[in-house]
Amino acid sequence: MTNRLSASEIARAAGVGRAAVSNWRERNPDFPAAPDGSFSALEVAAWLDKRRVPRDKRQADEPEGTTYGDRFRRALGLAGTLPSRLAPPKADPAAEVRKFAISGLHELRGAAARANYQELMLGLLQARAGEQWKVIRAELQRPMGSERMRRTLAQLEKLGLRFVEEIDPSRAMQIVESLDLIKDAENSTTTLLDDLLEDFAEFQMTSEFHTPRSIVRTVTELLQPTGGETIYDPCCGNGSFLAAAADRPGARGKITGRALAPFSWQIARMRLAMRDIDADLGDGPCNVLQHDVDRDRKFDVIMTNPPFAMRDWAEQLTDPRWRYGTPQRNRANFAWIQHVIDKLAPAGRAAVVMAPAATFAGGVEADIRRQLIDAQTVEAVIELPRGLFRSTGIPVDLWLLRAPSQSDDRVLFVSAKDRGRATSRVLRELTDAEIDEITAVHRQHRLGEAVLEPGFARTVHLSEISRQDYQLQPAIYLSSPQARFHSTEFATDVTGQHQQLSELTHRSAVLKNLVSRQLDRVDLASLATRNSRPAPPTVLLSEVCDVLAGPSGMLREIPADAAGIPVLTPRSLRRNRLVQEDLERVDPIARERLARYLLKTGDILCSRTGTIGRTALVTGEHRDSLFGPGFLRLRPNGPELSNHYLLHYLAAEWAQDWMDEHCSRTTIPSLSAKTMRQLPIWLPPLDQQEAITEIMSSLDEQLALQDEIADTAERLKYRLGQLIGAGDFPLND
């Protein structure tokens, strides 16, 4: 096989028309380049591995899931080799397996097919660490027929797995080849299993949430299970808490878990078996709220993450566990909390992941919450940041609970909602340092000390909670005057803001004279004598300016990187200026793949979705940043148009009305680059553009300064208001 191919040869090998190859090249910037007019066969094969052949385009001998890469390799005599996505990597074979596994899930459609694939992947991973591996691998490497596939699956069924759909032999072989990259199976398969479950959380297969790794570590560090203690998770999902507890050095006590769904139960069972843990997971899935299979049992440590607001959770509501009140049938939050308290040993401790609504819900739930607090079963409420879960964007709380026999009339409130580092554009995770920060204040609280860290953590007595109608939102107790007021810090801050206000007022007086001189340049008398105003000559924006919409799909494919290239979005645009706060960042590989979307000093960004027409000038501070799909980038392509003049032109009422009238009216209004290029532009001589810019800019500067004065005065007023709230407002004689 030749190493270089023409576009026509690619089309023949992939079984498509020449036009399809042209479309691939034009629409996909990551399609392999052809510097000498020919393409690298290996690069093309790797690119085609990501493109699945549609059902109506598959050939008679091609099973579901076949990619154009499979067809391309077969046509070129490469059928026995691994796809490039499985090529043995130089450093991290486990990472390659994870990439392959998640790409396979993206290719499949339907919950059953994806569940089947996950079970197959995880079953083969478990077999990889056991004696069945050689048998399975040998079976799959031979010519595959339905009978041979059944024998292979029989090996996996010895591990307790059952498959609801027919397994594609070629897909099974690809999984085996990917797992064969793992050479040190005994030491790496457990870690790889945990990593895959973290990846698979994107495709939630049951009503139980996958608990993110940083939450699992936070809970285990807070509760610190030790050797000999009994550990329980009444809604264990895939076993994250139980596995983490068992992984703690010297902490392998007796482990009990119950899963709601068959898939979760199978994975939890597999996960603990691969750790050589003899856990009590029952004979199958079980809803403990309906069937209390652990009646009369008590546990030292309980950790759980039940489904939020679970409906129809009980067949009958009469139960001795509901000693603090009967939970609502359509919301199981307080059923889970009471079940956990019922199972605590006299000196036991527990953590329950809860939706925020449980801290303030009214009606029956408010009554239950009041009784739980009065019984001193609530030790702490910890507010976690949003974005930790793939399955929900809302923030979550940790409720730390204790048995009613433990007497303490205090509750610790912690707000970690502003913690967490971004791992993607929508997901976050708690860092080790942040987890240590949370556990440190909890340790201080458990030792009987009064915790007071303004805005972060505070110990509160039940008397204050009762005055707040037994609500448990941390913000209520961390934003009170007593929690926030520190006299030394207050005096320093107010003095600084007073000085800043004085400086801004002085600058405003100086700027007022400049604005007056600039306005004197406008010939208002000439305008007043005109009977009519001729229509000004205009050009289309496309004649004098390059207009480009930000990337969408390509940007989503690039991983996040906290130290990578900044991505400007409409959130970065405030008062016609670009700000640095809360910028998303992506891997530096984007510098090559998205080079045309890198910004230059002097570019103009214009919002194209939502609130259309907001603009800002790109300064040196944001040079070489990327801009997202919510922006149009405008770049004057000749000396006849000043970028500063264009910025003011776009902000004028006429241009704003034009953009509003020409945007598409869907659920979210949007303005395309094609439409924006048709915007008529009045193009006066360059010296007149510069004069207009100077006049308008002076007014912009005045407005920005007035905003800054207003903000400073508002902050100063807020701070002085704290004196009133604290009951101490000293005055000079």
UniProtKB/TrEMBL annotation:
Domain DNA methylase adenine-specific: 196-481
One GO BP annotation of this record: DNA restriction-modification system
Domain Type I restriction modification DNA specificity span(s) in chain numbering: 541-712
Annotated keywords: DNA-binding, Restriction system
Pfam families associated with the record: Methylase_S (PF01420), N6_Mtase (PF02384)
Keyword set includes Transit peptide: no
Protein name: Uncharacterized protein
Native source organism of the sequence: Saccharopolyspora elongata
